[in-house]
Specification:
It is a single chain. This protein is mainly alpha-helical and 125 residues long. It has one domain (13-110). Helices cover 68% and strands 0% of the residues. The protein has four helices and no strands. The protein is elongated, with a radius of gyration of 16 Å.
Length: 125
């Protein structure tokens, strides 16, 4: 038994909804403030801190991380595409996709609805 690990307490359904919504709001704000580059950190921090607190917050945090992974992949692909001018289209589209997915996820989490973002593979569960 690990004596150094702090026990994880399960949180209430209301708190799960709040943290589920925060799992989408925090990366959304970070993305807007950093042109799409720091949203992943917000998603990852909430996932790592709250994944063991309840299934609803875990699902929403995992969805948030998955949206950020897909966004990061498209943003990285967009960088060399700037040289052929296509990156000027794909980069903003990737950000728009992430913004829309996080807004929908935030609303659904706040209502307590389970949701899986479309066109998003489940890298993290």
């Amino acid at each position: 038994m690990d004596d150094y690990a702090a026990p994880r307490t399960v949180i209430s359904p209301g708190q799960e909804r709040t943290w589920g919504a925060a799992a989408h709001v925090v990366p959304l704000v970070a993305m807007v403030l950093s042109a799409g580059t720091l949203g992943f950190l917000g998603s990852l921090v909430i996932y790592l801190l709250y994944k063991d607190r309840g299934p609803f917050v875990r699902a929403n945090a995992a969805n948030s991380v998955n949206v950020q992974i897909v966004t990061a992949i498209v943003l990285l692909i967009s960088i060399p595409l700037f040289f052929v001018l296509i990156g000027f289209i794909t980069y903003p589209l990737a950000l728009l996709y992430a913004i829309v997915m996080h807004l929908i996820g935030m609303v659904k989490a706040n209502r307590g609805e389970w949701w899986q973002p479309p066109m998003t593979p489940r890298f993290v569960r």
